[in-house]
Amino acid sequence: xxxxxxxxxxxxxxxxxxxxxxxxxxxxxxxxxxxxxxxxGGLRWLEKLSDVPMGKLPPHLEFQRTHVECKxxxxxxxxxxxxxxxxxxxxxxxxxxxxxFCDNFRVEVMRLTEDDMExxxxxxxxALANAFRRILISEVPxxxxxxxxxxxxxxxxxxxxxxxxxxxxxINVDPRLFEFAGNNTPNEKNTIVxxxxxxRKPNEPSSVKSNELIWSPKGSEFLLAxxxxxxxxxxxxxxxxxSFTCRQDSLPEFSNNAIKVMENILIAKLGPGQEIExxxxxxxxxxxxxxxxxxxxxxxxxxxxxxVLLQEVEDEAAEELKAKCPVGVFDIEDIGKGRKRATxxxxxxxxLCRECIRGGQQWExxxxxxxxxxxxxxxxxxxxxxxxxxxxxxxVKILEDxxxxxxxxxx
Amino acid sequence: MEHGSFSDHTKxxxxxxxxxxxxxxxxxxxxxxxxxxxxxGYSIPHPSDNKVNIxxxxxxxxxxxxxxxxxxxxxxxxxxxxxxFDKAVVDFKMSER
Lengths: 411, 97
Ligand code: SF4
Prior knowledge:
The complex is a heterodimer.
Chain A: H1 2-14, H2 19-27, H3 29-35, H4 44-47, H5 59-66, E1 67-70, E2 75-76, H6 98-104, E3 106-112, E4 116-122, H7 126-138, E5 142-153, H8 159-167, E6 171-172, E7 191-199, E8 206-209, E9 214-215, H9 225-229, E10 260-261, E11 266-270, E12 275-285, E13 296-309, H10 315-324, E14 330-334, E15 340-344, H11 361-366, E16 367-382, H12 388-410
Antiparallel strand pairs in A: 1-2, 1-16, 3-4, 4-16, 5-12, 6-10, 7-9, 7-12, 8-11, 13-16, 14-15
Chain B: E1 2-4, E2 11-17, H1 21-32, E3 37-43, E4 51-58, H2 63-96
Helix pairs in contact in B: 1-2
Iron/sulfur cluster binds at residues 307, 324-325, 327, 329, 350-356, 369 of chain A.
């Protein structure tokens, strides 16, 4: 009896009961223990025992569900628990309903420049975050040089190497203004033509940079081989490698917005008297086919790191801890009387190198390194065709289209 | 491309062409969140084949319907992600000024 009384007392303290209840329990111990089991709300103490399902996960399971813990040898609890019935025996529903997803999902932009952005995506499963990343890298279309017609190349760079180098030059044009060419004839809706004609005078060796690629809005100027051989008596326009129906710069989207490639990229070096003359045809494609169509230099995410000090780390240990971290996660604060204490000042910078928990068990006992499983620090570096925020929206749209296609297939 | 038994439509394998981990993993996530699903998983039979097989077993509903709902959910999530993202970008641009 007395033993249970003590238990009730600690329960009420830990769960911050209302004042009156605490009073009855602590004040008249013998009375409360005899009345409670039958009395009105008396069974509530039962529900508060730690192993009774209450629609909430016990703290250690909740921690495993939401965090990866990084130990010195290996990370723990790295899997995401997706199955809706994973905690059914605990009376916890693990399914994500749309409304709870909408309530919890947040985006915070950290940095946004012309070609680079960092943002936090909070409350989303890695399956989705990873889908966006994969789509950004390999499925958002851009324009890139695909066919190179070389009229003359006396440089030391072989034709095929030259063509490959040209292909990798980013083209600063909105790919949404173009169509996929497929097997259609090249026209003003699916092809961009650039000309490159450089010749160095003797005693003037120099580099050829991408600036010298000139947009040719009226299409190809090289005649088709079959046309060349025919007699020139036909009055109709000679056929070239493209069949533009109009000049591209007469289209409203390009009329005062010339198409350019990224500047200052080295294409080749020419010796005295060497020459390159070629035409480069850019078409729309996706990164899955060839990396030159990938709109991002990188798209990557990492989980938000959390660094927690499990004990007070003071004096020399604090100095040592601060010195251990190569990115300066820890700081030192004065706690008076010449004593110092380590604090976690910049956990976001943590690269999880685990340097701070090396050097023996005592360090593992002091510092705990964790990552949040549903908080992603997402980075996008654009190559210049589209700004990074547009790229991300496009990527999400592509995933939507994929779902739509499956639904259409099933119906 | 549903391959299931003729008598029991609550267990099926769906074969999607021209898809890979990108969609399959996302759909598997959304399927797993559905309480009607007892099992779901996917596999890519061969890396040079452009296809992925998604296996679904349910508690009694038609597997095809459950897959359709999963895709629908995924689409709604995407739409929410997009609108939230756009709003965050606009807010950020405003605060920059
Ligand atoms: S894991 Fe590395 S970066 Fe992170 S706090 Fe420890 S020492 Fe610093």
